[in-house]
């Protein structure tokens, strides 16, 4: 079954790159953070599905909890991790355990972390000492769902899985973990990664809608740290550790700057074969990165240094763009600014309209059944037209021009002479 998953991933990558059209990205408050543009040798590591109190497998650390082992290694290298935690999977029953080595290793209908029947040994709810240590030592914690239930259907691999299936259910699940961390530790989370990267919730909403409502950014990754798929090698654990080491080694040999601004995916838990190569592989990865001159920081620190995927500190407008992005929707959903593109009316509307109109009102209208608000820009466009900032006949995909901006001139230090995204953002008065 692990071979099936590997083939499926390759087919998906091929389909996305060759067969399927390039997804249409839009300006919004939620950006998919995969990597950022920087010339500094800094990168981030994310760890999904923990924390867990059970020992590594094989246990090479005297029964020490896996999450403690990972934190020990990070501390040794003065590295900071981003832990994408669950709340608890103890409520995910009745269920049966699937075959070890398959995606159903932890449950057929639901996920169970750290293992089937061992739910009380994992998750933020059951591991306060691990959560406290993460916070105390300066690591970042992000929201991987209170119960780690799929937002929507993923028939290819998880056809038998229960799903949350509605925006309200997704928001309730995310809010439960968000409020738990705030209430128990005073810790505010600002990012989330959907369980198994399933974005679609239903025929109307996706994870991006949920994250915009939560005020989150989408925590993605640009490099697979590996180890989570089981090996069929004669010595599987050693092979799984090698799968964590060799691809990283190859990339560094080809280009020592390859990992600048990248986010690396890891797992704080067992892989499909109930082994933990990360317990050994993480040290060797950090040794390679350290020897190459890298610092491993939290994803939030990475964003604080350089928030965009295509505009870095060498851009003359970088500081202005970075400041504006803290309060306004100016970047596309793939975290690019694309400053040389013409700005459209819809993108201007997202810049000018308040978040309540662009996000909350649009979602409220959709939940009420108003299909006219399916467009990402519909709430912001309606508000701008109602305020007289755009003429009633303005179309969201139409390029912005001086005539269209006549009513909104007060929002600019001076009406731009040309209407690239850079020129409009540069002249906009926050």
Task: Kindly summarize this structure in a few lines.
The protein is α/β, with parallel strands linked by helices and 430 residues long. Helices cover 36% and strands 7% of the residues. The termini are far apart.
Descriptive account of the structure:
With 430 residues, the protein is an alpha/beta fold. The chain has two domains: 38-303, Glycoside hydrolase/deacetylase (TIM Barrel, Alpha-Beta Barrel); 316-427, no CATH class. It is built from 14 helices and nine strands. The chain has helices spanning 2-19, 66-76, 128-136, 155-158, 167-185, 207-214, 236-254, 278-291, 299-305, 318-325, 345-352, 355-367, 378-386, 421-427; strands spanning 32-33, 42-48, 82-85, 140-143, 191-192, 217-219, 223-224, 263-267, 295-297. Strands 2, 3, 4, 7, 8 and 9 form a six-stranded parallel beta sheet that branches. α7 (236-254) links the parallel β7 and β8 (263-267). The model is unreliable at 4-8 (pLDDT under 50).
